[in-house]
Amino acid sequence: MALERRSLAEVVTMTERYAVVVVGGGAAGLSAALVLGRARQRTLVVDAGEPRNAPAAHMQGYLSRDGMPPAEFLAVGREEIARYGVELVRDRVVEVAKGGDFAVVLAGGRTVRARRLVVATGLQDELPAVPGVAERFGRDVLHCPFCHGWEVRDQPFGVLGTSPNSVQQALMVSRWSKDVRFFLHAVAEEELSDEDLRRLAAAGVDVVPGEVAGLVTEDDRLTGVRLADGTTHTRSVLFVAPHAVPRTGLLERLGAELHETPFGAYPVVDATGLTTVPGVWAAGNAIGFGEQVVHAASGGYRAAAAIVGDLLMADLDAALRV
Q1: Selection from 283, 277, 297 nearest residue 96 by Cα
Q2: Which of 57, 174, 188, 241 could, after both became Cys, cross-link 203 (CB 3.0–4.6 A)?
Q3: CA neighbours within 13 Å on the CB side: how many for 301?
């Protein structure tokens, strides 16, 4: 049922009503849902099932959950929110309209009402178009040394240059290995400043000009990086910097203000995740590229706590007006 075929009042009258709809069932969304459920707020989580960290076998750096498979983490989270009556549906939000409440339309045809929204839709990583990179991403083609550096420490590293910002990645991974080669690939040598070159040399990073043509594997493991000129460099780990594509379509349609960052445009939010649209909070990678799982969970908690207080004050003010 498309919103344009009925008035918002007609749609709202016909739909189920929730205190909060959480869009996205990753760490941020589930964390928000857990806090909301425990606060006795009727909550629906709409999850399209596309977690950013799905390619990774384990997540790291989350105190008490270090090394836990991402799928297991999400499964435990779903079990926990169910204890407090939170509903979860595998679907996708295709439209939201703001009236007195929000009318939320799902791809499956269901329409629900929500007094408040949490947008935790994350982002999508677009990988460089180098043969073998996508197939090995999350295994021995990696992007974050904080997530994976310990597990591959002291191995021969490669870093794929996709922009001048890749210099920072090459410098950073040198903390985990002293054998690092920075393959310029899409970065022209003249794009490197004298300061870049001095820092790379100080970190012991070898700079390798030329385009990367593909990866070399043996027994289902990375063994080398092959250049377009046919030369091969023995490497067992390759770090890449994906192009981040924020999933901000829903927020944009609601009229949320965005701000530009080196990693894309993200919503302007306050310390609790409240966007410039009244009643709409955002959390996790929906607000920034660098939100790790532990940050996302924290952001979901903060947003939920703020929403509980916001709804309380709204109800008290309404009661006083009677």
Answers
A1: 277
A2: 174
A3: 6
**Predicted confidence (pLDDT) per residue in 285-317, tens digit:** 999 998 999 999 999 999 999 999 999 999 999
| Segments of the chain assigned E as strands | 16-23, 43-47, 87-90, 93-98, 102-106, 111-119, 123-126, 141-142, 157-160, 180-183, 205-208, 212-217, 222-227, 232-234, 237-239, 243-246, 258-261, 264-267, 280-282
Amino acid at residue number 87:
E
DSSP 189: G
Half-sphere exposure for 175 (CA within 13 Å, toward CB): 11
Percent of the chain at pLDDT exceeding 90: 89
Question: Which residue type sits at 261?
Answer: T
Q: Are 184 and 210 in contact (CB under 8 A)?
A: yes
Six-digit token string for 33: 């849902």
Beta bridge partners of 43: 20
Q: What is the pLDDT of residues 135-158, one digit of tens each?
A: 999 999 999 999 999 999 999 999
CB 149 within 8 A of CB 159: no
Cα separation, 193 vs 191, whole angstroms = 6
Give which of 2, 9, 32, 255 is closest to 111, Cα–Cα.
2
pTM: 0.91
